[in-house]
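Page 42, continued from yesterday. The earlier attempt failed because a stray header line got pasted into the input along with the sequence. Redoing it now with the clean sequence only.
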Amino acid sequence: MKDKLPATYLMALDIHSIHELSLFYYHHFDMTFPVLNHPLLLFKHIRGLALPLDVFPVVCRTAKLLSMDFTFPQPGFRQRVSSFPELALMALLVIAVKLYYPFDAIDRHPKSMTDPGVLAIDWDQWCEAQKDFDSKEVPDGRLGQGNEIKVEEKNVFKMSGDQMDEYLDWFEKTWVDEDRARKHPRGYPEQLLDMFPTGGTGVSANDRVLSIQAHQDREDRLEQKLRTVQGHLKIREVIPSHDAGMNGEAVNRIGSYYKRYRKEEDLPASARSFHEAAADLIAVKLSTLLIAVMQIEHKLIRWRRKDPREKETSDDDFER
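This time it went through. Structure tokens are written below.
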């Protein structure tokens, strides 16, 4: 979404801006935003991250355990990062991945073939597929959306006419405030502004074609990433409960040795690539996503300590 929208609209889609908008409607019109359509959005995130579909019911079950309904927070409640519904949904997905498809090399064994963790993700292949997905090509003769901020003085002399128009259109939408120039006492005279209008000529047919081609190219790259990752999924060795410990060795189950990452520096290479891709899907910083994940992990720890049925694995295993 960030790649498709002009920079002037990015601030309006920030999670804090959306929250302020929901409070505005609540205070002035007594209206509440509808509940997030989390099943459809969750499926979109799973597809965008090329994850096994088995993680879908895990996220839904975890949300139900924590009584999370993905509603926008109302005024009067303590606002935390994990209170925002879309960020909370992605944090739950990250936790589910860390539980069933961890980033370490420890061998874990499911109890049956129906266990969601029976599949194992090859994270090296996932990182390579993600790198290929991110390395999108810019059409010939175009500057490429997102590359405008990288333009330097020396690049101007090598830019074509279309690239110069593309850069100036971006500069106008991002930095130029014509209304302020007209109203400010020291601004340019209105007659001078009328002589040199800054408005663009609108979206051309060629721009529409390029936009459609860019969308189709992204879908093709996503399909290629899905085929690559899904093609390298492995099946873990299944050890039923009655066979566990027969040789005197402890069996590591799915979800054991859960690792919590408090800072960006704690992330190993594969985990960092995954967390960055997840944060980019919902247009937040990596640090913001880590905070939301940590807050929901604390909720899970509190839930496990209250539920007497969840004593099979100690809290120390979850916190490691």
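Notes: The radius of gyration is 25 Å.
Reminder to self: strip header lines before submitting.
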